[in-house]
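Appendix B, record 7
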Amino acid sequence: MQLFVPYRKRPFHIVSLLVLSITLNAVSPSASAQQPSPAETRDSIVVQKKVTSKKHKIKLFPNAKHEALFFNVKGEEGRAYQLYLFDVEGKLVKQAHIKNNQTTIVHNLEKGNYLFEVFSDDERIENGQVIVL
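Structure tokens (predicted):
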């Protein structure tokens, strides 16, 4: 003996809401994993220089999206320059080495305050503060 159950027609919008609800519940755990990291959601990067050298033009500036920090030096021909970035506890966080007329990028800076120093041949040329908001 077979039992026949008549099919009830439901309005389209109720069925759509049920499918949407099931889809959102299935997607939500992976959606939280795709949220941007704190380093990607920053507002700005501010650079404050304390000592400025007239002989060496040192530039520290953020990219357009404030995701990274550019380090550029125009100075004496053939010299090498080192950038050291410290957290407020004095721990070395990042360092970069470049030659004259070169540019490098410092990535993955977390929000916070940093102190920087630029050296060339064991001589401090410039220092200051970098604030990542």
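Remarks on this record: The two ends are 73 Å apart (CA to CA). The CA atoms of residues 81 and 120 lie 5 Å apart.
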